Amino acid sequence: MKTKKLGSVARFGARYGKRTKSKVLTVEQGQKVAQKCPYCSRSAAKRLSVGIFQCKKCDSKFTGKAYKVGE
Ligand SMILES: [Zn+2]
């Protein structure tokens, strides 16, 4: 099913409500793109587990928020 607004959370169909799904959507959109590394400031950091990120370029491992690097 392809929808304009829902994106990756379209798989949940009509379930779970709008607010929950929009939160999941912002998390899942952040998982697709590489996060910005605070050390070399390149967009190359990936999430290893909850709050832990690693940069592919400078190989530094650092903490951030649960699903994204900062802010
Ligand atoms: Zn880096």
Describe the protein's architecture and organization.
The chain has two domains: 32 residues, no CATH class; 38 residues, N-terminal domain of TfIIb. It has 71 residues and is of the alpha+beta class. A four-stranded antiparallel β-sheet has the order 1-2-3-4, with no helix packed on it. The mean pLDDT is 90. A hairpin with a 2-residue loop joins strand 2 and strand 3. Zinc ion binds next to loops.
Task: Describe the secondary structure blueprint for this structure.
Layout (H helix, E strand, L loop, with lengths): L17 H15 L2 E2 L6 E7 L2 E4 L5 E3 L8
Antiparallel strand pairs: 1-2, 2-3, 3-4
This protein binds zinc ion.
The site of zinc ion (ZN) has 9 residues, from loops.
Short summary:
By secondary structure, this protein is α+β, with helices and mostly antiparallel strands.
Mean pLDDT: 90
Ligand kinds: zinc ion
**What's the SSE pattern?**
HEEEE
CATH topology of the largest domain: N-terminal domain of TfIIb
Estimate the global geometry from the Cα principal axes: elongated
The major sheet is characterized as: 4 strands, antiparallel
Return the CATH architecture of the largest domain: Single Sheet
**For this structure, what is the CATH class of the largest domain?**
Mainly Beta
Please, how many domains?
2
Cα distance, first to last residue?
33 Å
Strand order of the largest sheet: 1-2-3-4
Task: Count the DSSP helices.
Answer: 1
Portion in strands: 15-25%
Low-confidence stretches: none
SS elements, strand count? 4
Radius of gyration, in Å, reads: 14 Å
The assigned structural class equals alpha+beta
